[in-house]
Amino acid sequence: xxxxxxxxxxxxxxxxxxxxxxxxxxxxxxxxxxxxxxxxxxxxxxxxxxxxxxxxxxxxxxxxxxxxxxxxxxxxxxxxxxxxxxxxxxxxxxxxxxxxxxxxxxxxxxxxxxxxxxxxxxxxxxxxxxxxxxxxxxxxxxxxxxxxxxxxxxxxxxxxxxxxxxxxxxxxxxxxxxxxxxxxxxxxxxxxxxxxxxxxxxxxxxxxxxxxxxxxxxxxxxxxxxxxxxxxxx
Length: 234
Hints:
By secondary structure, the chain is α+β, with helices and mostly antiparallel strands. It has helices at 2-15, 184-189, 197-204, 208-215, and strands at 74-79, 93-99, 104-109, 115-121, 124-129, 139-144, 149-152, 157-162, 168-174, 182-183. The protein is globular. The termini are far apart.
């Protein structure tokens, strides 16, 4: 009987929402990411505690505007576990988003995290689109002013557009050390290898010629998740 109770309890725990979280709770004070480790784990292996320094928990540069001289008129300074090793196993990340006048952070989604956006300067039009419903894909969007905040549910396509004629700045916070990023247009028309033209043409109701042209465009990624930080920690 006792074994049966333990088994049932374990199954209920596995079925709970907390058990399905992507970022498990840490079992120690910290687990600084060891980028050089060859051990394959969900996230990063822990650096030896003796080798941890204060700089593993430090990132600088969020006070500086990133260049918005690109086709979208926006740029993102992302602070995730790829750029700040001390975030490993802590389940949080953040970013700074700079917008030129009428700049756009294009429709995208984060498969592993919800997001809360805070407008620090300027005026944005921001929103998200729901999953399929009986009423279709519903848009929830609103004009955001300085000091406003807006939540984007996990996995849903969302965007931000600077509707002002002056630069805008926003800060986003995520509930994952690595929220992931799927930019809608990039994924559809810029995948490698490309999705066959006849599939996209039928899906988006465009001609193969138009789809082929779209696939040849250099789709911009303003929030590269991997590689060296835009601003190195001192």
